[in-house]
Design a protein that fits this description.
Length: about 60
């Protein structure tokens, strides 16, 4: 997700849903860098979200 700031630049965040049924929850990460375009913010959010999922999957596979 990208949100425009008061100065015209953009912040990025990503929401990752996990679980099933009543155990479902969302993890929202608000990312620190600020971007000149919404597209750049979205690309960063996607990259960070995929990295988080990859790290989580690797951790679970090791268990």
């Amino acid at each position: 997700m990208a949100k425009q700031r008061h100065d015209g630049r953009y912040t990025a965040s990503v929401s990752i849903r996990s679980g099933r049924g009543s155990g479902t929850h969302d993890r929202v990460m608000r990312l620190i860098p600020v971007f000149d375009t919404a597209q750049a913010a979205l690309c960063h959010a996607q990259s960070e979200g995929l990295a988080w999922i990859d790290d989580r999957t690797t951790t679970l596979q090791k268990a």
